[in-house]
Design goal:
Number of helices of chain B: 9
Oligomer: heterodimer
Shape of chain B: elongated
Strand order of the largest sheet of chain A: 6-7-8-3-9-10
Order of helices and strands of chain B: HHHHHHHHH
Largest interface: A-B, 24 and 17 residues
Helix content of chain A: 25-40%
Order of helices and strands of chain A: EEEHEEHEHHHEHEHEEHH
Distance between the termini of chain B: 60 Å
Structural class of chain B: mainly alpha
Strand content of chain A: 15-25%
Helix content of chain B: over 70%
Number of strands of chain A: 10
Strand content of chain B: under 5%
Mean pLDDT of chain A: 87
Number of helices of chain A: 9
Number of strands of chain B: 0
Shape of chain A: globular
Chain lengths: 285, 219
Amino acid sequence: MSIRTETPTRPRIGSDAAPILSFDNVCKRYGSLDALAGVTFQVNRGEVVCLIGPSGSGKSTLLRCANALESIDSGRVLMDGRDVHDRRTDARNLRRRMGMVFQNFELFPHLTVLRNVAVGPTTVLRMPAAGAAARAMELLRKVGLGDKAAQYPAALSGGQQQRVAIARALAMQPDVMLFDEPTSALDPETIGEVLSVMKRLADEGMTMVVVTHEMDFAKRVGNWIVVFDHGKVVEQGPPRQVFEEPTIQRTRDFLSHLGWHGESLAASDLLVPAPSGSYEHRTSD
Amino acid sequence: MTLDWSVVWDNRWRLIAGAEMTILLTAITMMLALPGGLILALLRLSPLRAVRSATTWFVEFFRATPLILQIYWMFYVLPAAFDIRLSEFATALLGLTLNVSSFNSETFRAGIQSIRPGQWNAGLALGMSKPQVMRKIILPQATVRVLPALASTWVSLFKDTSLVSIIAVADLSYVALKIRSETYRVLEVLTAMAALYCLMGYPQAKLVDWLHRRLKVTE
């Protein structure tokens, strides 16, 4: 495995069409705490937008506001032009177009791995059981877990469970995938397999919003980085700018706190072997 | 003091018929009180305040008053005040079912609330409606979790059916006490009654223990 000296970052995808997801001055209070104090940014189709920042800075809250698992106090969230929090909007219709992956996986422990992935299509899309099972199997193979279909989640490692959770969200064929710190609850040795799956998704053109502390991933895979602090966006921009020439002191503090020195992305977690030979890993040359 | 056990043997068929009635009452009551308890639990979790508080009053009434009073009340007050005439058996069944449904509803409610909120979010995020999440995700997990508690209620119910003897339903207690008053063989008849209850109750209690061990919650 060779070591990269220079990391190519992905450009922001300019788009003539309206953004698939946009946040416009979103505010959310918990009692006297401003969880979100006027958050504005947008996600274009096919982009990977990474939300970074200290714990408690509002990143995860924002993600839950994106698919209306939480209400907002003011501002607007538009999904494909429709106001997510409008009373007249059918939140369920929008939610099924936004796949969500949780920090703690939240697999359904009473269902087999296959049923975990198939339950969305059968319940929400009214798909026939056989078709849903076939789709689920295909997705499980894609995340390298075809051989675990008949197991229950408890028998899987954390990394495997999170890959099942990704397959479960993909089964709804969403337009956007929301990742809420998908690797924070994982053992270090299984983080790589989850990030690999996510990188492959990004390569396939999936639109993704990723709350993460994995700076390597954010820099390599992200098209756009949004830095949160105290419920506000303190900086946003392409990865090279945010990571290498952060304009805001708060960003610099945060990155240096994580031990980030703006260079050498060499021994990345992304370079671990692919799970169960499902797909090729792209290592640098 | 001489013991005459022949009185038990001579009345064996009556005692067995009484035991059958006890089992029948227990089984039918539980069959009705499981869905009954579930419905009450769901009503108590309703978003509508009026529904919630009405159900709460209902449940708390049946949990806070003695079963013997409830059975008497239905036996005397229903016909007198509301002109509702039920057979003794139906009255007993109604009283037991309402009582046990109330207890079961608390069990179900605790089970439902013990499922972590993340499971709700996971279901909702897939686009499921709240009833769908409840049916497909929450209830299956909650039910397994409360099975030991429901089984304990079953065993209590099995013993509490003896109270219906006060309105002349011919369960094991009623029959045994009747034989006692016919023969004056107090010691033999009550000992036989104890033995029969124990014979039937012990395996049930063991089953509950087994369920508790088997389904111990692990997260």
